[in-house]
Amino acid sequence: MQKLRIDAHKHYDRGSYLQSLQCAESIYLISPSNVDVLMLLTANHFQLRNLNESIFYAQQCIRVDVACAEAYVSIGNCLKEMQNLPSAVNFFQKAIRYNPRLSVAYSNLGLTFLLMGKAEEAIDTLEVAISLDSSNCDALCNLAMAYKSQGRRNEAKTKLLEAICIDPTCAIAFNNLGVLFNSQGEFEQAVDCYEQALEISPLFVDSISNSGNALYNLAKEKRDEDTVQKAKERFERALELRPDFAVARGCYGTFLLETSGMDSIDGARHLRMSILQDETCFDSINNMAALYFGHGAFDDALKLSLRVLKNKPSHWCAYINLGNVLKAKVSKWRTSCT
User: Fold this and answer.
1) Measured between alpha carbons, how far is residue 271 from residues 141, 247, 298 in Å?
2) Which of 107, 110, 128, 264 could form a disulfide with 260 if both were Cys (CB 3.0 to 4.6 A apart)?
3) Residue 260: φ, ψ to 5°
4) pLDDT digit string (tens) for 105-130?
5) What percent of the chain has pLDDT over 70?
6) DSSP 8-state symbol, 338
7) What whole-number distance in Å separates Cα of residue 314 and Cα of residue 311?
């Protein structure tokens, strides 16, 4: 059994989650109350996107050890991925109650606050995570994204470079640095960062999808068709690896509409699927509003633009869409009155 346990951890560290899962399941049959094995099953199922299974094994772990803070963190992570953010917050806070010095719990809680649009609470929580463990690269990366959300780009960059200095193999830091460069219009630097992230972690789906965005932005800047094709391949690869990745699907839908024309059936289909997969994917909703506007369906475009702004008042693109829709509706009304 000891050899199986060692093999399970080795496979997990290498990213061979199926092999790790198989080893862990063999141990589980012999020792179903082993906390280490239950947490390994939880982690493997999370990596394989079997979120309900991951929650099941974390709950089994809590039944064995009610004070296992890591199990509460694992459930919180699954709920966060399921977009159930308030419940995720609840489980991260439970983890902190059982272990007030667990840096990873504060880090994930801070990220969840950020996803909820609570940037100040996110920053405060992430600073606690870093004070407990100054080498927590995830917390540094999350803090950088919280700074970015407030327009504090230099501070964000500093935190990401700090994470890379601590761990040069931190793919998330390179990915987030790419996000920062892409948002500043520095597309070549963004592509370089994503490539470094993918060199470290070839199956990092976020970086694959993000590199598609950066490559497409670069292609538009340089008017390079080869780079457009490369961007297309990145989006398709991301969806091949993770079909439920709503953000990547929405980006691909928008890409198809822009490159194939507003009548692209595939583009519209991917946008709709993105919204069905994740109702908080506001970029997709906003782009669907733009699609409706382009086809003269002003009422539908208006509803979607208002839906975005109700949930995310800082979404400036939605204001542009809303302005265009209202202008078109007024023009149409005036025409009908003459």
Assistant:
1) 29, 9, 18
2) 264
3) -110, -10
4) 999 999 999 999 899 999 999 999 99
5) 99
6) -
7) 9
